[in-house]
Amino acid sequence: MTSATIPGLEPGSAPTRHQELLEWVAEVARLTQPDQVVWSDGSDEEWTRLTDELLAAGTITKLDEEKQPNSFAANSDPADVARVESRTFICSKREIDAGPTNNWVDPTEMRATMTELYTGSMRGRTMYVIPFCMGPLGADDPKLGVEITDSAYVVLSMRIMTRVGPAVLETLGTDKFFVKALHSLGAPLQPGDTDVPWPCNTEKYITHFPEDREIWSYGSGYGGNALLGKKCYSLRIASAMAHDEGWLAEHMLILKLISPEEKAYYIAAAFPSACGKTNLAMIQPTIPGWRAETLGDDIAWMRFGDDGRLYAVNPEFGFFGVAPGTNWSSNPNAMETLKQGNTMYTNVAVTDDKDVWWEGLEGSHDHLIDWQGKDWTPESDGPAAHPNSRYCVPMSQCPIMAPEWDDPQGVPISAILFGGRRKTTVPLVTEARDWQHGVFMGATVGSEQTAAAEGTVGAIRRDPMAMLPFLGYNVGDYLQHWIELGKSADESKLPKVFYVNWFRRGADKRFLWPGFGENSRVLKWIVERIEGTVGGVETPVGIVATPEALDLDGLDVNLDDVAEALAVNVDEWREEIPSIEEWFSFVGDKLPTGIADEFEALKQRLA
Ligand SMILES: Nc1nc2c(ncn2[C@@H]2O[C@H](COP(=O)(O)OP(=O)(O)OP(=O)(O)O)[C@@H](O)[C@H]2O)c(=O)[nH]1
Ligand SMILES: O=C([O-])CC(=O)C(=O)O
Ligand SMILES: [Mn+2]
């Protein structure tokens, strides 16, 4: 088929006159050779058409209309269940600009390799063109993108996760800049082939060209690998933009905490994947009089406002949340959000009456269809839902969205939290002495690996600012960028920085801190530190809360456990030193001197 004969490519048939966009679409169609080109408009008609197609293909199951209105459950290929960090590349022109934490291939070489893979890769399929915007369309400088994909599941998910529809094309006009985001499942169909429910390729590439602000993804249909507005654009490409332009693109939730005096505090928090951002973003405080609202659960873009304060915007439009562990007691607001429907679940279990279930959800079932489409009973080996099973749901359905969540101005951040999953060593909450010390804390976050990416679950790795898998450039330059932003700011207006750990365990392996809604007690201490109304104890690692300073009223917990959760054990911290040393030598020459100074000071305090 020549490009002239690909339906949807006829001159004048596209809904835009943006020349560069039209040329790129034609070029990709010539390369990938789809059966047709379809421009996505994000309409309800499109949703129905594509969900009907995926139902017929066996990719998704329609859930019960009463229990899960307008909602579907997809099962992925068993080998396409998470982000693939080993197949993720930052193809900057110079290797040094990708840095030691990223896979790098020369961009010319990578383009050649992938061009070959893309040749004919959409045969037998429809090529969809999805114009989208990260963050409010009404922003001064709206962050536009266009994803080309041969996956209908991606089209449906992008409609939930990003702002799509005719207004995006209108904003693009005839010549506005946009990020080119190309995605192919890498599963062409020859005439007569029967399709599989979840097409993908065993060979995968999640590639970024930061200087060109371009994304090329191949071989995976899953989440962060395929919904290119999310990690690829809003973190990897945006972090490179932010470095050049003086702002921050971070793996952070945005939370609004309201005190009994009706004073609002905006808090941003960075935890690695599957370490509690969504849960904290939707927290239901357990302390009387305190309320929380949410603005985002995964990504924050932050820049200084005219008043010198740091303002955060959430670029996303939906939640792509971890299902296991989500339930009416751990996260009632997520459950309420899902109850409204319009949800695409992936790799959860389905009940006989077409409801969803996952490990940790209320209720038990004698029989389920598991995440691989197989019969499951409580006697079966393995979980019914994949540990990284997810729900994809519109943010607007969350009952506690802050009214200002869609405001292009963003919200002024009072505190930044860093955290990870640590069984030992790291106290429940520690305040940094100042910005640079806070950057040091962020730079040394360690966390046990989770199921959100391939690798050994449980192994501790350093994950600076929870951005290890999401940096679009050299980690040393990134840390320097954090230091410099602090230096350029009025210190009194900078957010205070805290290091939290909800995951510390006792000798008997039990969590020492109840977590979830009870984390509001920690947030209260943080707010009181901001106001200067509560004490803390100076330790070698920072200012740590004491059991007396935490509001533990009405909390049914053993005080010894709380003390243990807050303890700074100097021996444990001394054991951290070689591991931080190793991490910093891995970061290499670009490690900022400010960070090295903080490390020296810590070692002396521990000596
Ligand atoms: N023990 C304990 N577990 C928690 C807490 N908060 C969250 N979790 C668990 O951590 C897991 C992941 O939490 P999420 O909030 O979905 O993680 P996330 O950081 O949003 O993850 P990504 O979407 O992958 O970026 C779930 O299984 C939760 O039940 C807590 O305070 N204590
Ligand atoms: O990107 C994904 O697939 C999900 C996510 O939020 C993460 O892994 O941090
Ligand atoms: Mn995430």
Automatic annotation (TrEMBL):
Cofactor: Mn(2+)
Swiss-Prot/TrEMBL keywords: Cytoplasm, Decarboxylase, Gluconeogenesis, GTP-binding, Lyase, Manganese, Metal-binding, Nucleotide-binding
EC category name: lyase
Binding site for GTP: A274, C275, G276, K277, T278, N279, R390, R421, F516, G517, E518, N519
Domain Phosphoenolpyruvate carboxykinase GTP-utilising N-terminal: 23-243
Binding positions for substrate per the UniProt entry: R83, Y222, G223, G224, S273, N388, S389, R390
Subunit architecture: Monomer.
Function noted in UniProt: Catalyzes the conversion of oxaloacetate (OAA) to phosphoenolpyruvate (PEP), the rate-limiting step in the metabolic pathway that produces glucose from lactate and other precursors derived from the citric acid cycle.
Similarity-based family: Belongs to the phosphoenolpyruvate carboxykinase [GTP] family.
PANTHER family hit by this protein: PHOSPHOENOLPYRUVATE CARBOXYKINASE (PTHR11561), PHOSPHOENOLPYRUVATE CARBOXYKINASE [GTP]-RELATED (PTHR11561:SF0)
Protein name as it appears in the record: Phosphoenolpyruvate carboxykinase [GTP]
Organism: Williamsia phyllosphaerae
Recorded name of the encoding gene: pckG
